[in-house]
């Protein structure tokens, strides 16, 4: 079942998808699958939801270099493992897929919160001074990779004239822009990153250019241990709260797709529970 389903999902064209989906329905036309097919059609294959996962849709968007993601592959591995060890009842397949989507969504939210609050030390480079906490660490990592690949310049890896194609396809600063910033001893700017890589909408960043987007509010009086003390206690509950609030804010502002997934998944779980009763 999973194989037929993923073949359909991976279809590069709409026509191919439609015919594979018909094949899927033919293969599972017995009455016991009726509810499952209905669920997939009503919840996942509507015009507004199918574009989040059917390949012929997702391929039409700029991919920003994420053609194959290990995240998807590891989810797929987990799915296969879980399915092999179960009897693969239809409802279980769907519940499993849902729980994986949900877990990935939560993980993405946490990563986002982490990026804005605690950028790892390797991004404390002059190049990132103005963009850290505003641009994803994934994007900064790409900049580091580009830099390490070309610099120091070598005869076997010459830096050719700038065609702008790297920046156009990836939405990231190319080696020429990186070189320029290094030469001028300055940070890369937000304008060198596509909206895709920003952690908050550009309009909001531009409204507060001087301030990093999210930092805990300044404390009036620092009591007890000095800043930077090595034996810091674990995170304060205050920090947790702001992270939580931030996540909520994300859900409210930008994460419609994810919220939709969560909503559907909750609904499915409750219908699964009913079925068991
Ligand atoms: Zn260039």
Automatic annotation (TrEMBL):
Residue segments, region Disordered: 210-258
Domain of life: Eukaryota
Biased composition (Basic and acidic residues): 237-246
Protein name: Uncharacterized protein
Organism: Aspergillus mulundensis
